[in-house]
Design a protein that fits this description.
Layout lengths: L12 H6 L1 H8 L5 E8 L26 E2 L3 H9 L6 H12 L7 E2 H11 L8 H11 L18 H21 L5 E4 L6 H13 L5 E3 L4 H9 L5 H7 L5 H4 L1 H13 L1 H9 L3 E4 L4 H5 L13 H5 L3 E5 L1 H4 L5 E2 L2 E2 L2 E4 L2 H5 L3 E3 L13 E4 L11 E4 L7 H11 L4 E4 L3 E8 L2 E8 L2 E9 L2 E8 L3 E5 L2 E4 L20 E2 L7 H12 L3 E8 L2 E8 L5 E4 L7 E12 L2
Parallel strand pairs: 1-7, 4-5, 4-6, 6-7, 11-12, 13-14, 21-22
Antiparallel strand pairs: 1-15, 2-3, 8-9, 10-12, 14-17, 15-16, 16-19, 17-18, 18-25, 19-20, 22-23, 23-25, 24-25
Helix pairs in contact: 3-4, 3-6, 9-10
Length: 553
């Protein structure tokens, strides 16, 4: 659906949510269109055979669980290919599993409960051995595939995001004068072959012909070394076992792509209208972009420059990188808000634990793919209350801003020549954090449906954003009390929304952790804007609210 005669600021929120062509055509007429990014914060609630609670009505058919079978054949496989470095654990593990022999298939939860009952020490197995056992016992069911039924989704916001993706891809294909070609990457999954069907169907549900691209960490290593004969060995190094038995078609696709070589892979990517990066493990996702020395693979630039970048969760966070006026843009890899109170930021490729049990804030300073260089991206943001985590990282990395995308929401950025436009889709919004000092930052919240503009390399709320007319008695300010447990759940977002709705200039909060109270003050100044857009829940747009925190004396 396109609206070429409307100016963007005159479009209704519903049109903004559903029409990529409206955004592109109305704001950037006659210009060369470069790229649209639809970056989802994770938590897409999709109706499927494995998640029926996201469906409006009951449905039948499709794979409901990954199932496991412990029988004589499975135990023979387990013993025959047992990893040589774990011989000391073999006897106890096999004996415990022999007690579970049955003709009845089990879910993973059922298998683990019975296994750990037989051998409590199995809970301490090394991760490679744990995955080896599960993969070897997995039941091969080629006729059973996950079925998606997005047309009966119970969550409208997910449909809005998928519809926008579809519109973006259609516009890109029109610019290319070709049918839409979308490549689905599942490299962020521990088992990328198991995820292929799901993501391929996710876009197919909107009549988008998505093709799985078997660009796995194992394939990337095999191509870079010219050793397609070692693909299975490289899979095992990535903690993936026995996949040829369970997903023979996917393994054959991977082997065929390896045989075609680097040039064929790069050409396939260059012909695509869009690429989709899935949620999962960031280290695995990055392993198909850069080798172990941090050098780009020959196909990485082709991925970076596709007309449409679609990403979910980890795939969205991975897009941050490149450089801006403040230097290199990092990728966040782990940590929590309580570590931020202690200012525990580390240069690390993997999250680490503190003596307190919290996860230290870690990041990779060299960044990710680099399609988004306006600041560090974070996901699952407000519900997991990651504002302090992002602030601490930005302050330590000396970046001006970072952006946190809420679950079930998407940040959209469209580039055309030297013009830029943005918007927010989904059920919640996007947070912007700007550090001021070690314990002070500005907090902005852009709810679903608002328009964003790029000013001095920062995304800001469009100046012509309108607030609704509030009828009835004037809102009353929040009580002068300290709201507790501010770092749990989505309480910070809730408090800032309450400030906006009540027209309060100040709010107070507190957090208790490890024997220490921390006091938070939220206040507005001359730079702060708060507007109730009334688009849907969490509808208040907030620009540049000041948040300060300090230990209580």
């Amino acid at each position: 659906m396109s609206y070429p005669f409307f100016h963007l600021c005159s479009l209704t929120p519903r049109v903004l949510l559903l029409s990529a062509s409206a955004l592109i055509m109305s704001c950037m007429p006659g210009q060369a269109w470069a790229q649209t990014q639809v970056l989802v914060g994770g938590g897409l609630q999709v109706c499927s055979s494995m998640t029926p609670d996201h469906c409006q009505q009951s449905r039948e058919g499709g794979k409901t669980h990954t199932r496991y079978l412990v029988d004589d054949k499975a135990l023979t496989r387990l013993e025959t290919h047992w990893p040589s470095q774990y011989q000391a654990q073999k006897e106890n593990t096999v004996e415990a599993l022999k007690a579970l022999v049955s003709e009845q298939a089990m879910t993973q939860e059922q298998l683990l409960a019975l296994w750990y009952q037989q051998d409590p020490q199995a809970q301490l197995l090394a991760r490679p051995l744990y995955y080896y056992v599960l993969d070897t016992l997995e039941l091969a069911e080629p006729s059973q595939k996950v079925r998606l039924d997005t047309y009966i989704n119970s969550h409208e916001a997910t449909g809005d995001i998928l519809a926008f993706m579809q519109s973006s891809i259609s516009v890109a294909a029109g610019q290319q004068a070709q049918p839409p070609q979308v490549l689905m990457l599942t490299s962020a999954s521990r088992d990328p072959y198991a995820s292929a069907d799901y993501y391929q169907q996710l876009l197919a549900s909107k009549s988008i012909d998505g093709q799985w691209l078997p660009l796995t960490p194992a394939l990337a290593k095999a191509l870079s070394q010219g050793r397609c004969d070692k693909l299975n060995e490289f899979r095992q190094q990535a903690l993936i076992f026995d996949r040829a038995r369970v997903y023979p078609e996917r393994i054959a696709e991977e082997q065929a792509l390896c045989s075609q070589g680097v040039e064929a892979l790069t050409a396939q990517i260059e012909a695509a209208s869009a690429v989709f990066f899935n949620d999962g493990d960031q280290a695995l996702a990055k392993a198909v972009l850069y080798d172990e020395q941090g050098k780009e693979y020959p196909w990485t630039e082709a991925l970076r420059t596709r007309p449409v970048i679609l990403a979910n969760g980890t795939g969205s966070a991975l897009q941050s990188g490149g450089s801006n006026a403040k230097g290199a843009v990092a990728v966040i890899t782990g940590g929590d808000a309580f570590a931020a109170l202690e200012n525990k930021v580390e240069l690390a490729t993997k999250p680490t634990s503190l003596p307190s049990g919290y996860a230290a804030i870690s990041y990779e300073p060299e960044g990710g793919l680099g399609t988004f260089n306006y600041g560090v991206l974070d996901t699952q943001f407000s519900d997991d209350n990651r504002s302090l985590r992002l602030h601490s990282l930005l302050y330590g990395a000396e970046q001006l801003a970072g952006y946190g995308i809420d679950a079930g929401s998407a940040l959209v950025v469209i580039t055309s020549g030297q013009d830029y436009i943005g918007t927010v889709l989904g059920e919640a919004g996007v947070v912007k954090i700007q550090p001021l000092d070690k314990r002070t930052f500005r907090y902005s919240y852009y709810p679903s449906g608002v328009r964003l503009t790029l000013e001095q390399q920062q995304w800001r709320l469009a100046t012509d954003t309108k607030a609704i007319e509030v009828k009835g008695p004037d809102a009353q300010a929040l009580p002068q009390m300290r709201f507790g447990d501010i770092l749990y759940d989505g309480k910070l977002r809730s408090l800032t929304q309450a400030m906006c709705l009540s027209n309060s200039k100040v709010a107070l909060a507190t957090q208790y952790t490890r024997g220490q109270y921390w006091d938070f003050t939220l206040r507005s100044d001359q730079q702060t804007r708060m507007l109730n857009t009334d688009i849907r829940a969490n509808a208040c747009a907030i620009e540049a609210l000041i948040i300060e925190f300090a230990p209580r004396n």
